[in-house]
Amino acid sequence: MPSKVYDHIIIGAGIIGMAIARSLLKVRPGTTILILDKEVDVGGHSSGRNSGVLHSGFYYTADTLKARFTVHGAKAMKAYCTEKGIRFNSCGKLVVAMDEKELELLYELERRGQRNGSNVRLIDAVEARQYEPGVFTYKKALFSPDTASLDPQTVLAALKSDLAASGVAFIFSAKFIGHQGRVVKTTAGTFEGKKVINCAGLYADQVAHDYGFGKKYTMIPFKGIYLKYAKNKTDVRMNIYPVPNLKNPFLGVHFTKTVDGTIKIGPTAIPAFWRENYAGSHRFHPGELCHIACEEARLFITNAFGFRDLAFEEMRKYDRDHFIGLAVKMIPGIDPRGFGDFTRPGIRAQLLDKSRSALVQDFVVEADRASVHVLNAISPAFTCAFPFADFVCQEFILDHD
Fold first, then answer.
1. pLDDT at 167
2. Which domain holds residue 15?
3. DSSP H stretches of helix in 37-99
4. Any idea what the CATH number is for the domain that residue 368 is in?
5. 128 pLDDT band (50/70/90 cuts)?
6. Would the pTM of this model clear 0.90, i.e. be above it?
7. Does residue 263 lie within any of the structural domains?
8. What is the tally of structural domains in the chain?
9. CB 361 within 8 A of CB 220
10. What is the largest CA-CA distance in the chain?
11. Angle CA(149)–CA(154)–CA(160) in degrees, nearest 5?
């Protein structure tokens, strides 16, 4: 048996796991925390492969946790970056419409943003071109001056350093195998904790199932790919997004202006066939292939939440010309030959509610006195990380002690 008993064991060294450790230390200085991760360092998956966009909170209906935490989260993340000397790019964002139908959705986004406390306003096409000279929009655009971008890896490294300096222990290459009572079994050994906090991202559902939670959920991975604009860093000044389909959680192919001024387009939301299906047969897992392919086949046949349409639409984005063409609609004058290489892909850990055959569009947490499970920390989880972590600590960790 392990010789040391930790107050808290956190599974997953991504942004949410580390933010929860940070929140715990604020409330209970000196509490003992162990963070386990199956990779060799922090942010090996969704957090480290994040787009780096700090969102401003206008996509989400007012009854969601996303709406509750995005505006505050962006401010808190910017404050942390300022404190640590981490650069971020306050470039802003335009959401543009292509036709009258999309224009009506812009009004809905503005209403949502205003309810959520987001600094957004509709502007006409002339004013939009003052911010982004090459942009096309139908009559109006939604302007978000507070949208920014940063380098996720820099933030993750700073958090790791802060936590280690405060006595938090990290053990890497420690893949979760199972548990027995308070003991967590991993490939790096066994560890005992009074409370386990599951922030395992792509594998959060499997860890939760081992503890008897999240039984109606399973993870459906979606691959996100970006394409870098290699010609220059000046043809686009800010983030340019299309009007999204509000029936699903994806925002469509858009222009991202990174912290160093680089321009990229993406992402895709291509259904993946195993959880870490980044490229080729990398980390191929036959059991996951069988399970996920069966779930996706069921969704495809029933066209639940428009999955069949989404799959066809997303698979077309493997065609480079089509992918670029979607972006060029928003910036017609950009050089389609100016795009270079694809960047490192990411996988969105998207929870599926099997009972409803529906993608879960908000954060999901389940807990008892022994364990807490963050099941659906999807975008904009990086933006929301600090206030969301405070919420998890107060509502699911401390109140369950």
1. 98
2. 1-52+151-215+361-401
3. 65-84
4. 3.50.50.60
5. very high
6. yes
7. no
8. 1
9. no
10. 69
11. 130
